[in-house]
Amino acid sequence: LPVSRETGKRELFVDTENPSPIHFFVQGAEYRLFRIVVPLPSFAKETATTQELEIFPGIAGNLHLFGSTGEGYWNILGTDEQARDQFSRLVYGSRISLSIGLVGIAISFPLGMLVGGISGYFGGVVDAVLMRVVEVIMTIPTLYLLVALAAVLPAGLSSSQRFLLIILITSFVSWSGLARVIRGQVLSIKQRSFVQASHAMGGPHLYTIIRHVLPQTATYVIISSTLAVPGFIVAEAVLSLIGLGIQQPDPSWGNMLSLASNASVLVLQPWLVWSPAILIVMTVLCFNLLGDGLRDALDPRSFEA
Q1: Are residues 218 and 249 part of one domain?
Q2: Helix (H) or strand (E) segment spanning residue 270
Q3: pLDDT, tens digit, for every residue of 217-250?
Q4: Is residue 79 part of a domain?
Q5: 181 lies in a domain?
Q6: Residue 33: per-residue pLDDT
C-alpha cells in the first residue's frame, strides 16, 4: 500500500470496479484432508528439497469453507510486509510453538520422575548426591544460559537446529523442580504396605520403583505437565523475540511477535503483532485452566466434599 507523504500512514484504496465477492464453500486450490507425512532429515547440504515419508495419503478435495470467487485474494488477518498471509503463517507457526511445549514435557518429565523416584526410594548417599545435583541445576537461569550459548554457537544454525537447541536447554533445566516434588512423595509412598510386599516377594528395586511407586505420583505429574506447557511456549516466544529462537522465514508465534520491536510496525501494521500475541495469551490461559480443572477432578479431597 502507498504511504501518504503528509500523514505518514498507509492509504487504502477500494477498487469498486472489480469486486471480489466472498462466499462460503467455494472451490479453490486442491488439498488432501487428513494427510499424514513425516519429514525426514536430509544430510546432503546440496539438496534443498525436504524429503517426506507419507503415512496416509489423505482425502483429495478442493472445497474451501470460505473464499473469493473472483480473481482477488482472501486474507482473513491481512498480510505482512512481504505479502504473506498472516493467518496461514499463524497456523503453520503453531506447529513449532505447540510442539516445543509438548516435546519439552516428554523429555523433561520422565527424567524428573526417574531421578526423583530413585532419590526418594534409596535415600542416604544416593539421595544426598542426586539432590545436590538437582539444586545446582535449579540455580542455572534458563534465559541467561541460552543467551550465553547464542554467543558461542555459529550464526548459521538452521531453524530445526535452533528448535532442538531450545527444547534441549529448556528441558535440561526444567526437570529439577519436578524431581524434588517426586522425591518428597516417594519418601512417603515407599513406607506403604504394597511397596513392602513387593520387597518381601523379592521384587527388584527398579521394578518396584516403576511398577508400584511412580504410578502413585501420576496425578501430580498429569497436572504439572499441563501447567508446565505454557512455560515452554512463553520461553520460545521470548527467545524468538530477542532473536535467539526460530529465525525467518520459518514462522513461529515468537518470531512473528518479534515485529513488535519495530515501532513503525506497531503504528502502521498492528495486526501483525496482535494476532500472535492473542494466540500466545489464549494458549497459556487454556493450558492453565486445563491444569486447574484436572487438579480439581483428580484431587481425592474433592470427592470427600
Answers
A1: yes
A2: none
A3: 888 888 888 888 888 888 777 777 776 777 777 8
A4: no
A5: yes
A6: 86
d(CA 205, CA 78): 59
Read off the pLDDT band of 12 (50, 70, 90). low
**pTM assigned to the model:** 0.71
Domain containing 220: what range? 86-304
CATH number for the domain including 217?
Answer: 1.10.3720.10
Confidence of residue 129 (pLDDT cuts 50, 70, 90): very high
Domain boundary residue among 54, 74, 94? 74
Assigned domain for 253 exists: yes
CA-based Rg of the chain, rounded to a whole angstrom? 25
Kind of pairing, strands 36-40 and 51-56? antiparallel
Rounded Cα distance, 119 and 182, in Å: 9
Overall size of the chain counted in residues: 305
Take residue 181 and report the three cell numbers written for it: 516434588
CB 94 within 8 A of CB 279: yes
Q: How far apart are CA 77 and CA 294, in angstroms?
A: 34
Q: How far apart are CA 241 and CA 258, in angstroms?
A: 4
- For 14-67, write each residue's pLDDT tens digit: 777 777 777 888 887 888 888 888 766 555 455 545 577 888 888 898 888 877
Q: Are 212 and 204 in contact (CB under 8 A)?
A: no
Last residue of a domain, one of 74, 98, 116: 74
- Distance of alpha carbon 236 from alpha carbon 98, whole angstroms: 10
Determine contact, residues 77/275, Cβ cutoff 8 Å.
yes
